[in-house]
Write a structure and sequence with these properties.
Radius of gyration: 31 Å
CATH topology of the largest domain: Immunoglobulin-like
Strand order of the largest sheet: 8-6-7-12-10
Helix content: 10-25%
Largest sheet: 5 strands, antiparallel
Structural class: mainly beta
Number of domains: 2
CATH class of the largest domain: Mainly Beta
Number of helices: 2
Order of helices and strands: EEEEEHEEHEEEEEEE
Shape: elongated
Length: 256
């Protein structure tokens, strides 16, 4: 962002580590701009994993705003529109397929699912915003779980990729057959969780005996998780056959 007064312009270099989502300003280097603004000279000695040179107007934006703007701009470039599709197999209602794919590939994925005899009569669809390569977890909660999954807290990890959709097929069963007795189906939920690691620099004392305390930067991380989407999954109850009454002759009693 440049103003009319060239004296307000400032040229800075920002860097970010490969495992960070924050941009830092490198104050230890000197940037020399050319008259035509086509060539930038610097005395940098150590390369960062990611760098960007920014020319901005000091009157229009502060340094803190600039760092936030770059982080948001980077997130926007990496964001993708993804679609979650849940379907049941037409002849086997307790067999389901959950698909996580790019929204642009819905038509192709729809044809692939139909070839596997999955019906869209009770289809559940949700659209979410993900980042390329984002790590996700698929979880179940409620009265419906996969048959081979006895632990309700266990999760199925996967990563979002625009070119490679994620398919999850499983057989489901109810936990408590006496629950939800007023409904014709058993109900549960499929959840999509996102896990992210946040890194921060921590100063550590490496030698307390010295008069001058030496410190070294170390990276500490903490993991946060959030539920991005929740899809209702239903399992039709098996109707019990009504027994046909057997014709019986009435008992006769003879008086003595």
């Amino acid at each position: 962002m440049l103003g009319e007064n060239l004296s307000n312009e400032r040229l800075i270099l920002l860097y970010s580590n490969s495992n960070e989502n924050i941009w830092h300003i490198d104050t230890d280097i000197r940037l020399i701009d050319s008259k035509l603004h086509d060539i930038i000279t610097t005395d940098i000695q150590y390369l960062h994993s990611r760098m960007i040179v920014v020319r901005y107007d000091k009157q229009l934006m502060s340094l803190k705003q600039l760092q936030t703007t770059l982080s948001l701009f980077e997130q926007t470039l990496n964001q993708r529109s993804a679609t979650l599709i849940l379907r049941h197999r037409s002849l086997i209602p307790n067999e389901i397929c959950l698909t996580c794919c790019s929204t642009q590939r819905i038509d192709t994925i729809d044809n692939d699912i139909k070839k596997e005899n999955y019906t869209n009569n009770d289809e559940q669809i949700k659209e979410i915003i993900l980042q390329e390569g984002q790590l996700l977890e698929l979880r179940f909660r409620g009265n419906v779980l996969p048959i081979n999954n006895n632990n309700q807290q266990s999760a199925i990890p996967f990563a979002f990729n625009t070119n490679f959709p994620f398919f999850f097929e499983t057989n489901i069963s109810e936990i408590d057959k006496y629950c939800q007795h007023l409904s014709s189906c058993y109900y549960g939920y499929i959840q999509i969780y996102s896990k992210r690691k946040h890194y921060q620099n921590v100063l550590k004392d490496i030698d307390k005996k010295k008069q001058q305390i030496d410190t070294v930067k170390q990276e500490s991380s903490h993991e946060n998780e959030s539920c991005l989407a929740e899809i209702l999954v239903s399992l039709p109850k098996v109707s019990k056959e009504v027994r046909i009454p057997i014709d019986k002759t009435l008992s006769t009693f003879t008086g003595e």
